[in-house]
Structures are given as C-alpha cells and as structure tokens.
Amino acid sequence: MNREDRLSVVLDLLAESGQIEVDTIVDRLGISPATARRDLDALAHQQLLTRTRGGASAHSVAYDLPIRYKNQQNALAKTAIARAASELVPRGAVIGLCGGTTATAIAEALMARADIMAPSPDPGLTVVTNALNIAMQLAMRPQIKTVVTGGVVHARSFELVGAYTDTVLSSITLDLAFIGVNGVDALVGPTSHDEREAAVNALMASRATHPVIVADASKIGQRAFAAIGQRGAFSTVITDSAATTEQRRSLTEAGYDVIVAE
After folding, report:
1. CA gyration radius for the chain?
2. Using an 8 Å Cβ cutoff, are 102 and 72 in contact?
3. pLDDT value at position 47?
4. Which one-letter DSSP state was computed for residue 117?
5. Quick one: which of 151, 100, 103 has its CA closest to 127?
6. Fewer CB within 10 Å: C terminus or N terminus of the chain?
C-alpha cells in the first residue's frame, strides 16, 4: 500500500470513532510505529486531524449547527452518497455545494481525500458554496479554495439566499454541482420546502457542466413545495442502495442517470 492509500485509510479509521491510536494503525495496516506516526504528522500538517499523545483525534467543529444537522436522518446512506459523489470529482475541479446534510457529508468526504489535501501551489479543489457551515469547515483546509456566495442568512439552514447570492453565482462557472433536495419525483423533478433555497440551488445547477441531484431513497417519489429548476435541468441522481427497483426505474425512465451508492 502506497503512502497516499495509507493516509486515506487512516482518515477512514479516524472517521469511525473520532480518534485513533498509533497501535491501531500498526495493527490494521501492518506498518511500523514510526511510519504510523509520520503518517499522522503528515495529516496533522494538512490540518486533517489533531495529534494527541499516542495517536490523533478528529477536528472538532467550533460552532453550533442547527437541529437539522445534529439529528441527521439516514446518516449511513448520506455517507455512502457522499463517497460516490466524491468519486466524480477530479483533483483541481471547481464544484458547487448547496446546504443540507448530504452536501455537508460530501464536503467531509472531499476533505478526507489525500490527493486533494496534498500540499501544492495550486488548489486541490475549488468549492463554491452558499452554506456557512460548509464554508467554515473548508476554511480550515488551505488546500481547498473556498468561495462563499454572499447573501442573507437563512437561520433554519445556515444557507445564504437572495439577490447577493444570485449575483455571485451568475458570474462563475462550475464543473460539477451537488444539489440536495427534499424530494425528487420522476415527473416533477427535484423540489425543496423553501422557495428561496430552491432558487439558489437551481441557479447553482445551471452554472455547472454536470449538475447532480444527491438524494437518499426516502426522498425518491416525494414532492415538496418549490421546484428546483426546469424539468430536464439535471441528468444525474446519486442515491443509496435502499432505493427500490421501482424507484430506480422511475428515475431512469424519466431520463436520469442513476448512480447507486453502496
């Protein structure tokens, strides 16, 4: 196993419990304690973890999140979707991330990528977001260029909305945009409970070469109040393995490329 792969595995192990010991890394990867310590030091230098005596701990988030982020439903599904989304992102890409728990999981998956976090004079990734919590997480990662849209804070979701947001999004282009939804119906398309968030998400999607809906199985077949863009604005949906055959078929027949995250 090369060094980049080792660092990725270490981050995965750290994500499981929030802390890791050198002895655990030695046992799991079959490497020497000195190599394990050097790997932890390298990840700490990239600000991906905090070194402790005999190991490391995950970075804590130094701000309070709304209830929707604390009581995350379908967490395992969203983690799987986040990994699948991360696999679509090449190093050096420019991507858009809306707010929401699935987009937050995608940000975490991208921050765990050793290739993106590798020291370089150029950004390993550029992220444009209207979500304050995602921006604050990414701000601790100097390898990621973080662009915040501006706008008025929506207190329920920590998302920025309004005319200022539109001005920034209208002036940029994205390789990919990952858009979380409250529902995605084969006929209606993606929808959101809030019309202001829906408008921002639709504009972000329109600025991307490849806009992607990210939705766990519980969202498929559901409709919310506000449509996110015109029908046909999205070509891809990433969902989880709990999606039924019928749910997948309905989206495929509506013209979506359905990626199922295992």
Report:
1. 19
2. no
3. 73
4. H
5. 103
6. C
Contact present, 11 and 114 (Cβ < 8 Å): yes
- 224 vs 48, more confident: 224
* Count of positions (residues) in the chain: 262
Which of 156, 201, 162 has the alpha carbon at shortest distance from 183? 201
pLDDT tens profile 183-199: 999 999 999 999 999 99
Q: Is the dihedral of CA 85, 86, 92, 94 positive or negative?
A: positive
The answer to whether 151 touches 129, Cβ cutoff 8 Å, is: no
All residues at 6 or more sequence positions from 147 whose CB lies less than 8 Å from its CB, including other chains: 126, 127, 128, 129, 168, 172
Query: What are the tokens at 13?
Result: 């192990």
Cα 180 to Cα 81: distance, rounded to the nearest angstrom: 11
In angstroms, rounded to a whole number, what is the distance separating the alpha carbons of residues 77 and 87? 16
Over residues 101-106, mean pLDDT: 93
